[in-house]
Fold these 2 entries.
Entry 1:
Amino acid sequence: MRVLFRKSYLQDIRLFRDGVQAAWYGGFLALALSAPLWLDGYFLDELALVYIYAIAGLGLMILTGFSGQVSFGQAAFVAIGAYAHTILMGRYGLPFVLSLPATALVAGLAGAAVGRVCSRMHGLYLAIATLSVAIVTERLLGGGGAFTGGHRGLPVPEMTILGLAMDDSWKTYLVNLTLFTGAILLTRNLLRTRSGRALIAVRDSEVSARALGVNVAFFKTWAFFLSAAFAGVAGAMLAHAFYYVTPEVFGMNESIRLLLMVVVGGLGTIHGAVFGAFFIVLLPTVLSLIKVWLPAAIAQSGGFDSLIFGLILLVFILFEPDGLYGRWQKVHHFFSVFPMYKKRGFQRQKTFLKTERLR
Amino acid sequence: MELLTIADVLQLLLVGLSQGCLYSLIAIGLVLVYKATEQVNFAQGEFMMMGAFVGYQFIVLMGLPYWLGVGLTLIVMGAFGYGIDALVVRRLTGQPVFTVFILTLALGIALRAVAGMIWGFGNYTLPAPIPGNLKIGPVVMAWSSILAILLTALISVGLYAFFRFSRHGAAMLALSQNQLAAFYMGIPVKRLTSVIWAMSAVFGACAGLLLAPITLVSTSMGFIGFKAFAGAIVGGFGSIPGAVAGCLLIGVTEPFFDIAFPTMKGIGAYLVMFAVLLIRPQGLLAQIHAKKV
């Protein structure tokens, strides 16, 4: 077990805790950069998809994990991003390097508008309001006529960055990796700034945040803006990965899937978004490998995948509410204090309902 | 768009009313659970779907007489709701609301998959409780829609009387305010909570059986539950009269919206909800109050 000596306050907001941690993450980055050398095309595309989902997940993490605003509508902003990017590139001929920031801005502004409207809502009301944003957005895109291509959708133009055609798996992989690393650094940096701390204060107690002089409505809107901008970038990259955008891909179910993704990963942590993305992208692949060993009657039935997905979620919520990252922390703790690990250390407190509804 | 005649308007109003009553039946189940335990059941639509499928099993596949099948369905669904609380949801008592959101969402996904694996993912027909239509002048009304309206009215009045006059109703109200205090007063908190879940599943099953002749039985019929959510929110979540009023409002405006904007079919409910929430963020009959600093 390493002991950290605190010598200055700046130590609390350093990017990495110490050299060892920096070395670990540097190693991971090197591993990810070299992936095209030792992974074949299919798995490389899957890994790129993990990064895209992780970007969307990071956005949702800012909103739900750090600012405590439950959002069932993240897919709406992914959809807005995908469509904005496709239309800007395909119809108005904007180059990729301009279209991507513009897309982030468009999606972010849409998110800020929703956030401003929803800034007075809480809990369930917010959940249903954002859910209906997802449903309404899907319907509007479907009914948008020639502008959005209706239910038939739009073809996505080829990705070319500064004249370089991104026509190979490893090229798009590296683009996604760059964006993913950027998203992580942005999120990590956000948490080290004043506005990031304000977001967390809003999550932990709106009343005390307001008492400390945090402009709650502004920071809720800010969280929605950031989260939607991340989602927009993820949507743009997703559009390139799918070659074709249709409204159905970004429906309500996708929103719920994204939310469940960050929950499985571990709510309120950057690691959680990444772990969750690995889970949600690789689960179908793993399941199709398992299916070979199962009797055909179960494996061939259409509900098998979603049944397993639902059951895994149930198990996580009941037994490991901190998600994959929480489990990892426990394992890590077990070894770092070995043999002094106590199960009690992580036990959930027993609580009873005391309503806030009635005064 | 040509102008609607008075008969058309009446017809749409009645259709909307019966649809709104079906939403209310789902919403009543939601609000009951919320009132008692502050848990939000996102799987209520799936409870309704399960009710329709269990009814399909008894009435169509096993060929039982209609009303016997309905009785058995309600019993099975009651036991199902009781079991869901006793085995799964109870473990999360007192945890943050968000945890239960996720739990019930996951439950909904699992239930849809299970129903699909047992009965298949197609569309199935279930006979209407009372076949035929009632004609009053130019307006035509299916008997099952009338039944839906009557049943909703009956359940609303019954629940009002239950909470107002019965000992168990009072116990449930106590439970909803403070579980620990209710427990100290000798109220069997666990059992009562499960009974409330059973009641909510039974109301869901009623809605499913009434909805089945209209929309067909399928695994995706549970998505109507989200419209019931919208209705309950319009009314102010946590109040039964509010939920019924909200669902009726949404049900009645929906057919008119669909006729006015055919390309935007199906989102009228959510737009109405947004409009209401913009003006009153706590719904029409507010149940949650912002903390004063």
Note: Residues 27-221 of chain B form one domain.
Entry 2:
Amino acid sequence: MDISLPSHYYDRLWEGLAVTMQVLLYAFALGVALSLVLGVARLSSNKVARALSLAWVEFTRGISSIVLLFWMAYALPILLGVRQPSLLLMGSIALGLNMGGYGAEIVRGAIQSVPKGQTEASIALNLTEFQRIRHVILPQALRVILPPMGNLTIEILKGTALVSLISLSDVAFEARKLRTSGRLNPDAPDDAILFLNVLVIYFVVAQIINGLFRLAEWRVNRRFQRARRAVALPSEAGLALEATK
Amino acid sequence: MTATTPSGPSTPSDAVPAVEATPVWKRPKWVLAGIGTLVLLGLMWRYGGGNVRFSTDLRPKPNTTFDWDYFWALVPDMLRGLFLTVQATLLGFAIALVLGLFLAVGRRSRIKLISWPITFLIEFIRSTPLLIQLFFLYYALPDWDITLASLTTLVLGLGIHYATYCSESYRAGINSVPEGQWEAATALNLGPVTKWTRVVLPQAIPNVLPALGNNLVAGFKDAPLGSSIQVTGILAFATAASGRSFDAGVEPYTLIGIGFLMVSLPAAWLVRRLERHLTYERT
């Protein structure tokens, strides 16, 4: 049994993949930005900021990304009076909002896992609140953020297949078009082969994302350990040396 | 854990008869909850219907951005679509719970010929979109002379997809059972079936109930995908309603968003309560 497709099928699927990656990239950028802002706001000392971010996170987590996608693509433009919205933009925003909701919870958990002494030390060093978060808390939280964030990104990659339902020509859309156009052609490959190939494409992309996140994790861990060695107090360094002997 | 009095060594006949604690499933609260669930499922089965037909005579008033009369008139149709979606979710999740357990146990197998393909299968299904898997089931299975109704396809697709998620949850629970329990089961010469059903799983599953609940909520969020394979669920309702006139999309899509949150927020809240309850009992 031949499990590969004719080459012009792959050409079409590559074109679709470009759209998929575009949506993924925009959604990822929006999602990461939102999760950082919301995750920090969830732990803010300001009551209003806390309540608003909680409501927002619950809303974006509670609603299905599919429903959000359709609402953003078909209802929001009419409500705002926009005639021809960019579906690519709307789709990416919907997926990004969804990712932001889940990401905010990851960031919040990671920030809470940073020892309290770090916050106290940065207050003692007279750092501003922004400096504290940017230079002390987040770099340490990053080690905890990265692994679940990788999984979340793969979830968003899977979510990009949904934009085919609002007729964006991504991989899933191209696959469906290829299937319909092949129905009249007796030489066309089986539907099973076609969709299996599409599944493999998504699987490979997911593995690449996984690899990239592993790499980032490794780099962050290495930097963390180096920094730790660099700032070790002389007495501690001496102890560590003795321990290794 | 729930309080059960240890039925110590056999007591003399004149001793006070041992007090038996009521098992969890015999407590009124749980019995009521069980009956309630059954009634709800029955009602959904009766009125949810396999193939919902939506009324077609509704139109919004022209030149309105948001027509409240139209909005309220759509509610019954939306509920029928929602029922079907919930029904598909629950049936699919029932498959996922059982299949996931087998996948989790199979992945732990010491025979590599069993554990490796299962590991690969779990990773593959987990990192590919459910939408394409549904297309695969819906369009490719007829090539092998298996034709399924669209609702069955959706239930099966959800079941298989979420079985891989559930298997990961089960795996975490199984790994959290202390090593000594396994050793004790071996020492007592228990067979593999007794070991799993009487020793390991009763300790592993309560710990992962919240994770399974989260999977259920996630599955509910994916269930509207059925509209792409002609399941007349909540999203198909909105598509049908918005197709009636040029600017008819606002009300139905807003309505399904609200209908969705009405189910998913309480469900998520229940899961969180369960989680708190379990942590409380454990400490």
Note: The first helix of chain B runs from residue 28 to 48.
